[in-house]
Design a protein that fits this description.
The structure is a homodimer of 245-residue chains. Chain A has 245 residues and is of the alpha+beta class. Chain A contains 8 helices and 10 strands. The longest helix of chain A is centred in the first third of the chain and has 15 residues. The first copy, chain A, binds a DNA duplex (30 and 30 nucleotides) through helix 3.
Chain lengths: 245, 245
DNA sequence: CTAATTTGTCTATTGATATAGATAACTATA
DNA sequence: TATAGTTATCTATATCAATAGACAAATTAG
């Protein structure tokens, strides 16, 4: 099961090994709150030099995943991944209930712009009509767990940025526009390396992977009201897709 | 909108830029069947040396995404990403209808093993009971689009590997066990770098990203029948999550 | 045909990555 | 206290990654 490591890949060995260790923690191969195998054993396991393993460990120590203690060993700190549910009733706050004590959406900035083809199609409006663009960050217990760009039809939702800034909730903001309930219509999902903006906004280390969703929310009678692109740090969040609910 | 590139990240600049170009093609910033901006322009756009851009382009040429022609330019070949639908009625073959002319599941190997905790919980059986493990690759028009490991309760589905090898379809194989319909109960989703096995099985270039789903299928009355971990190449497949259907 | 544009190739230099070996510092335990 | 096991630090070397500049080769525009 110990598949090997790729050389000359554009991804450095220490980064690949750091990823493997993270994976090992997630799958339970490396138990939380206990010691990792010694550096020499890891080096042999992955087929690399001990110093390369040390680079990987150093990165994970920097990330707060591991703690190294001279003479004793390197220990896995406890840090569970959040499970973010996606379904017909996807909502940021309620989705993380039980996993976090506090969560909210911070409004980073807002602006208006003409709708490009993709946004116009998603919202069912004319290409070039004005849309409101919100840049937001989802936070839970003080940690960034998502980074989203959201578009609304400016005609219908004028002033929604004010409501967002005040309430910290999309659901609450939409109530002010007479929308008491809405559904997730569709979600497109992909993944990529975090770019510099993601790194800054989500407090990630270079080389991290982000899950990217493009989603459309609709009213109960099917009218599109919201289009969003959301980025989730793959090392801290996994998405739980449920057919029902 | 042109967010910059991360240095000293463990991920080389040329790999990051190759990812950005792939992203640009996916979002339509770089149109298919037409020329990319000149190397000098890309170098300026991303803030790197021309030779670094050339390394990225070389990797994508190798991957079959671009074609470089001396004196003319570098062209984006047409290769749309497959959209793989995930919902209550997720099925490999029907999901790709209309996007491909041919698709099937190839059985790479099969074996039996005792169920670990995760598999036992998913299938609702006792930990340590025997399960059948299938290693499969989904292929569409001759290209690998998924790589899955699937577990079935050995007691109930004895011999399913033979049916899989013959039919190339999970749905057809389950019919032989009296299951004419089934539903996707839940899906957990994450992403990581492709490991050496993924690279070989999915015919990927080093540094590629794979989407990983862990899913449980159940009968109409809710009995779990199948647990699977599937890997999709993020550069060739995106997942389309639909609430309905 | 000429000039401009664009990709291809070459040399050179610097810094990051990876390997190798030796030794120090620290911890736990017999 | 002595020893084994572990992480920390140091030197050294080779290769990869990135930058820089110059020029060749092919194509297109005028």
């Amino acid at each position: 099961m110990a598949s090997s490591i790729e050389r000359r890949s554009g991804v450095s060995l220490w980064r690949q090994i750091a990823d493997r260790i993270l994976q090992g923690i997630a799958t339970g191969d490396f138990a939380e709150n206990s010691a990792l195998p010694p550096e020499m054993a890891l080096a042999e396991l992955y087929g690399v030099n001990r110093h390369t393993v040390r680079s990987a460990i150093a990165a994970l120590v920097q990330e707060g995943v591991l703690r190294a203690e001279q003479g004793r060993g390197t220990f896995v700190l406890s840090r569970k991944r959040l499970s973010y549910p996606i379904g017909a009733r996807t909502r940021f706050s309620t989705g993380l209930q039980g996993q976090t004590t506090e969560r909210h959406i911070a409004l980073l900035s807002s602006s208006t712009e003409p709708a490009n083809r993709r946004i116009a199609e998603a919202l069912g409006i004319a290409r070039g009509s004005t849309v409101i663009r919100l840049e937001t960050r989802g936070e839970a217990d003080g940690h960034a767990v998502s980074r989203a760009t959201t578009w609304f039809d400016a005609k219908r939702f004028a002033g929604i940025e004010t409501a967002m800034a005040e309430t910290g909730s999309i659901t609450a903001s939409l109530k002010g526009f007479g929308i008491n309930d809405y559904l997730r219509h569709s979600t497109m999902l992909s993944a990529r390396h975090a770019d510099a903006d993601d790194l800054a906004d989500l407090d990630l280390q270079p080389g991290a992977i982000v899950l990217v969703t493009m989603s459309v929310n609709v009213t109960l009678d099917g009218q599109p009201i919201q289009f969003a692109e959301s980025r989730f740090p793959a090392e801290r969040v996994e998405l739980k897709l449920s057919a029902n609910d």
